[in-house]
Amino acid sequence: MSIVIMVVGSRGDIQPYVALGKRLKQDGHRIRIATHDAFRQFVIDEGLEFFDIGGNPVDLMSYMVRNPGMIPGMVTLTNGDLKKKKAMLKESCYAPSRGTKGPFVVDAIISNPPGFAHVHCAEALGIPLQMSFSRISRCPTTAFPHPLVNITNSDANTGLTNYLTYYMADLLTWKGLGSHINKLRKRVLNLEALDVRTGPSILEDLKIPWTYCMSPALVPSPEDWQNHIDVVGFYFLNLATKYEPSSDLVAFLNAGDTPIYIGFGSIVVDNPHALTKLIFEATANAGVRALVSAGWGGLGGIDIPPHIFILESVPHDWLFDNERVSAVVHHGGAGTTAIGLAKGRPTVVVPFFGDQRFWGTMVHRTGAGPKPIPHKKLTIAKLSDAIKYALSATAKEAAQKNSIEKGVQSFYKHLPLLNMRCDLCPSRLAVWWSTKHCLKLSTLAAQTLEKAGLVEMRELELHRT
Fold first, then answer.
1. d(CA 47, CA 31)
2. 92 vs 109: CA distance, rounded Å
3. Are 174 and 200 contacting, i.e. CB atoms less than 8 angstroms apart?
4. What are the backbone angles phi and psi of residue 355, rounded to the nearest 5°?
5. What are the Cα distances from residue 220, in Å, to 16, 160, 173?
6. Crossing angle of helices 334-342/11-26, nearest 10°?
7. Would you call 178 exposed, middle or buried from its count of C-beta atoms within 10 A (0-12, 13-18, 19+)?
8. How deeply is 122 buried, as exposed, middle or buried, from its count of CB atoms within 10 A (0-12, 13-18, 19+)?
9. What number of CA atoms fall less than 13 Å from residue 396's CA on the CB side?
10. In sequence order, what are the residues at sequence separation of 6 or more whose Cβ sits closer than 8 angstroms to the Cβ of residue 215?
11. How many CB atoms neighbour CB 215 within 10 A?
12. What pLDDT score was predicted for residue 74?
């Protein structure tokens, strides 16, 4: 099959889907990653096709830090990229990739929720869609509320309140994006418009299959989720085997006690110098050495004390392995949280926006770290105390196993294979439908029958799965 994976977000959002794409490619599928141009070389270096959908993830992260209550997806509307993304997400299903030969005609779509065109492109093309997310649930449940909806008072019981928060989030998103989605459906995809009754809950109403690549140890699958929703664990991309550390980094690691790691990944902070100074003083107070990742926030830039080493880009699966660091402090991104726990690293979460606080809370519940410290409330004393807790024996918890294989099987499980197979050549995908013969036909079968004078191509219709 030719599969397009639509992903909108930061490096931490893209990386799990690259891992998934590589595994699907091993099964003989053609994989295209449709995402931001900033990740072009990363995707190509991993042996997958790339398609640019526009948008600057650095601007996205900066905006989200300044507006932490904004629902992801609404940012697309406010930053002016929506018109371009609408066209590019559609074109990712059929347009040739730069640097590749031959046409691309998609047979199935995998997408994360912010790639909002997913279900509409799948409907227009009549192909299967698999939703996948490395962050917390977008599927309604009574077990916990939507991570971006904060209800302080409710007359309903807790379960019902939790359930309704998902519809509140969908309604708010539809209020901002609904008119633009309908323009995409009517003007670009030739589909009927949706309204407030059908638009917000379209994924739930159609029972589109979901695969959550998050740790079931942190977030067990709720009992009220039906069998079209799977929780399989995080998808890890093995980058450690290709990495060679610099001599300066090796020297620092060998020069004293095991350091901790501090980094906020793709987060763009307003005052990197102030945050850098706070980190330096907190680690000195805690009596620890630290590897501090510069990240997109630009940490560093001031005099570096001897107990600090400023990192550039280092694969977490290498850095967090083999006891190279004793604990990790980060923003609570799903990917960083997962790899830290998978390597058995106690974790301190300093959330900035979105579901990061949720992950910090889940880490704390397992005992693998202290309560999350929102970045606006971060002080030298609080960070120092949190580091000391993370280094305690209580915080050293076991973590999850790699679960990418379960993600691949989840994708296969939800494919409508009976409706996708050619009736005459079951090993091939059906492309055409013959009303006269009531047959689903692959391209090869249709051409063979036409040459034999048994069908006429003009009588065939495109088959919709």
1. 9
2. 10
3. yes
4. -90, 10
5. 20, 19, 26
6. 70
7. middle
8. buried
9. 6
10. 233, 234, 338, 341, 399, 400
11. 24
12. 47
Structure tokens at 414: 């939800």
**Among all chains, which residue has been given the structure tokens 């079209």?**
228
Task: Decide: 231 and 216 in contact? Cβ < 8 Å.
Answer: yes
**pTM for the complete prediction?**
0.78
Cα 125 from Cα 92, distance rounded (Å) = 12
Query: How far does CA 307 lie from the centroid of its chain?
Result: 34
Q: Using alpha carbons only, what angle is made at residue 42 by residues 40 and 48, rounded to the nearest 5 degrees?
A: 80
- Consecutive sets of 10 residues in the chain, 465 residues long: mean pLDDT of each? 91 89 95 93 94 75 53 48 61 80 87 90 94 83 86 88 92 88 91 94 93 81 91 84 90 94 82 91 95 81 89 89 92 86 89 84 86 93 94 64 67 90 93 93 93 92 89
Report the pLDDT value the prediction gives residue 277, as an integer from 0 to 100. Answer: 93
| Sequence-distant (≥ 6) Cβ neighbours of residue 284 within 8 angstroms | 305, 307
pLDDT at 78: 46
If 0-12 CB within 10 Å is exposed, 13-18 middle and 19+ buried, where does residue 242 land? exposed
